[in-house]
Structure formats: structure tokens, C-alpha cells
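Hi, here's the filled form for the chain we discussed.

Project: internal
Contact: R.S.
Residues: 116
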Amino acid sequence: MAAVNAKIVPVLLVIATLGPGCIHTSQTEVRDESRSVVEFENETAGRIFYETLSKRPARLNREESNTKVSLPIIFSNEHKVVTGPNHGFNQAVRECDTNHDARITESEARIWSGTR
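And the returned structure, exactly as it came back:
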């Protein structure tokens, strides 16, 4: 039994020394959508819309999914998927353009800016 323990001890020492060297990978993928085409009734409607949009937090309505796979001590893999900046713009257009005609009127912009 002592001979078996004598062989195991060096192997355990090597594992203990090299074992904490975990392989870790992390990846973030940005999935952006195409920007919605929208027109404004007049310059004032566009100004109100963009001023209100610029006051919103950058990460508002940003979606994120996270997948993590790991085997303790040996391997760890993390994959994140986040939406791009056009997602926030498109969400703002959907909220502001209440009749969904791809044209934001001054009154729609004023109402939307009041709800922010």
C-alpha cells in the first residue's frame, strides 16, 4: 500500500500545481437590427423626438442573454448576446409613432416627450 501511495502523491502534486490553471473563454456578441425608417412632420417634431431620445439612458430597453458553461477547475465558457444601439432607437419610434404610419407628427413627439 505504501508503494501505491508513493506513486499517487507525485501525481496529486502535479494535478494540484497545474489544476488551478482554468481555461476561460468569454465572448460578447452584439446583435443589431436595421434602423427603422421614419419621417417627421416638421423640424420641431424631429427636434423634440431626438432631444427626448438623447435624455434616455443608453442601456434602456437593451436586451441581454447570457450562457455560461463550466467544469470546475478545468474549463469555463461564457457567451453573451446583447442588442445593438438601433434597438433603442426602434423602440422609441414604436412608442412615439402611435398610429404606426412611419411619420412622427409634432403632437406625437410632444406627447411622447411628456411621458419620459
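Let me know if anything looks off before we file it.
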